[in-house]
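Lab notebook, bench 4. The sequencing result for the construct came back, and we need a structural model before the next group meeting so we can plan mutations. Quick request posted to the team channel:

Model the 3D structure of this chain.
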Amino acid sequence: QVQLQESGGGSVQSGGSLRLSCAVSGNSADRRYMGWFRQVPGKEREEVATIDSDGRTTYADSVKGRFTVSHDNAKNIMFLQMNSLKPEDTAMYLCAADPYGGVWWFQYDYWGQGTQVTVSS
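Done. Here's the predicted structure in token form:
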């Protein structure tokens, strides 16, 4: 079992920055792959960024060059640094973990509750 808890969301103006954190605990084998996803009401949950236990990352095209995913293995925290935020980044951001992972939300077994990010123009 894996437990995840997001923090760091909030409201910012377009062009601003936020740093999300995801505190994780539980079986390390079940969280070899971790990711950030986001969801807007009425739309499918989508990948933002993923990172595996070796530090390899993937990013959605819409956030490349603006967002950076990282993890502090010693503290069991995953981060998402979001710069140059746009109104279209407004969503509920959720962190997820899985033994095998991938870039699709349905490939992840463990989820946090989410943290809201709102970007105003």
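The two ends are 40 Å apart (CA to CA).
Will bring this to the meeting.
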